[in-house]
Design brief:
The chain folds into two domains: 9-48 and 144-212, no CATH class; 53-138, no CATH class. 33% of the residues lie in helices and 23% in strands. It has helices spanning 9-18, 23-26, 31-46, 146-158, 161-169, 188-199, 205-212, and strands at residues 53-59, 69-84, 87-89, 95-98, 109-114, 132-138, 174-177, 180-183. Strands 1, 2, 3, 4, 5 and 6 form a six-stranded antiparallel β-sheet that branches. A two-stranded antiparallel ribbon has the order 7-8. The two termini are 32 Å apart.
Length: 218
């Protein structure tokens, strides 16, 4: 089904608790920054925005190939409108989103194919050339695939290593609360990483990144 939102600080906190960290330690951590860092790390590695948003993007018509192909250099889930100046193109008739069947495969579109395109020549002095405008839902999908979401959450947790190092190095190698106690022992990070892997289902971040890394058109 996928996730309708990026991992939140609250969801990160739940994962850390399940991994064996104390609420006392978690309360000292910057979960908001960590959650954002996990998202940014994953999207930076894949070159994609995973959760689509409504945007308007403009393109220089000179980037349309002689065969009528425009590389969007971004992911497009749906196109509400495609225009060239005041000329509107009908999606599915005048212009086609490609690759074909991308939506059926759970993938975004990466380029547009114009059925008939006259390649205009412009003088790049004043006035500026007319632009192609594409309004639509931009990003990988309307929801985030489960494995990508888990990889973001894992990266968010790993980004907390420096903060945890600081607190543990300051002598916080264990604590007790009421009738509960926890000790990290001599290998606190091994403990942390192993438990995170168990909680998050042994997520293979490099493997998931390879699945979603955006290809570059030649």
């Amino acid at each position: 089904m996928g996730k309708a939102a990026y991992p939140t600080p609250a969801e990160l906190e739940t994962s850390l608790l399940a991994a064996g960290l104390s609420q006392e330690l978690i309360d000292l951590l910057d979960l908001t920054t960590a959650a954002l860092a996990g998202r940014q790390t994953f999207e930076g590695l894949t070159g994609r925005r995973m959760l689509a948003t409504t945007q308007t993007r403009e393109y220089d018509p000179c980037r349309v190939s002689p065969r009528g192909v425009l590389d969007l250099r971004a992911d497009l889930v749906t196109a509400t409108s495609v225009t060239y100046g005041t000329q509107a193109f009908t999606v599915g008739t005048d212009v086609r989103m490609a690759p074909l069947n991308a939506a059926d495969d759970g993938r975004p579109y990466g380029w547009l194919e114009f059925g008939a395109w006259r390649f205009y020549r412009f003088s790049y002095g004043y006035p500026l050339p007319t632009l192609i405008t594409v309004v639509g839902s931009w990003g990988y999908g309307a929801t985030i695939p489960e494995n990508a979401w888990m990889a973001m959450l894992y990266e968010a947790a790993l980004s907390l290593f420096p903060q945890i190092t600081m607190f543990i190095a300051g002598g916080m190698v264990g604590w007790s609360e009421a009738d509960m106690s926890e000790q990290y022992g001599q290998d606190p990070f091994g403990f942390y990483r192993r438990n995170l892997q168990m909680v998050l289902g042994s997520v293979d971040v490099p493997g998931v990144v390879n699945i979603y890394r955006r290809p570059v058109m030649g």
